[in-house]
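Now for my pick.
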Amino acid sequence: MRVNFFRTVFRAPRFKLFAAIVISLCAILFLTAFITDRSEGEIYSKRVNIAVRAIGHDLLLRAGDSTSVIPPVIEKAKGVFLLKFENEFVFHPDILVPIVQQFLAKTGLSRYTVTVYKCHNPAIVYGFEINPPHNSIKSCQGRSQPKACYNIEIAFADFPDPTVLNSQIALMISGIISVLAVVLISTSLQSKKSMPSAEQNVSIQNESNPVLTIGRFEFDTTHQRLRIGEEAISLTDKECRILTLLNRNIGRLTLRDELIQEVWTDDGVITGRSLDMFISKLRKKLSADPDLRITNIHGKGYKLEIVDNAGAA
């Protein structure tokens, strides 16, 4: 019973429309968040790159070198930038520290570690840390470093986290989600147009022909009753809906799920034997016409049939 209930809920047009809206919002939020994060990370990378090159330029000018080419800054990892130099030079920590602070203050990042080491020797020859407000470390000021080939590495502790996915993957995922949402919305709208609810079906039939002929019965959909000869048989609301659907497909199979969805769509949970119980009641009420019967197609649904018993005999 629970399986049928969940299957009915998931097939309902309103559920499909709701799911499509949720998926669309998720796709929009996912793509927006990714683009925002990616743009922010790229902006910080470019800003730091420019600032680090400016540090190298100013440092060489103070060392008396105005002709050396400063190679492109290398971003070794998230928030870690490496500045190399073409020629040897002498630098003074008392000059390096304020230059670095001056240019990096313009990047919007305030926590970083600067290490200087010789080109072919990984040992650190000088370094300092800026970690406001009270945890900065500045060492060995007042001592000039000898002329040599140096590399300067700057690692930021407050650099924005990069996005996990690249732009192509993010766009692909967002595109797939958006297409799925469009399909669900289209299916939902088509279902609403092509599959009116049981109440709408009854209403349409009532307007066009409120009294139908089923075998020897007159089926009065307006007053929910069957009439055969002088006998009038009252029907409950659900019995009337079920008979309407079976009569609409007379001679053909009407699926159990279709009956449950259209008759119990507004009732929430139904018991496992509810449909079978109402079918049993309908059979009894239709028994006055021996040529009219409701056949059970095991595991699939029911079929309303008119059988000519006299011809068969």
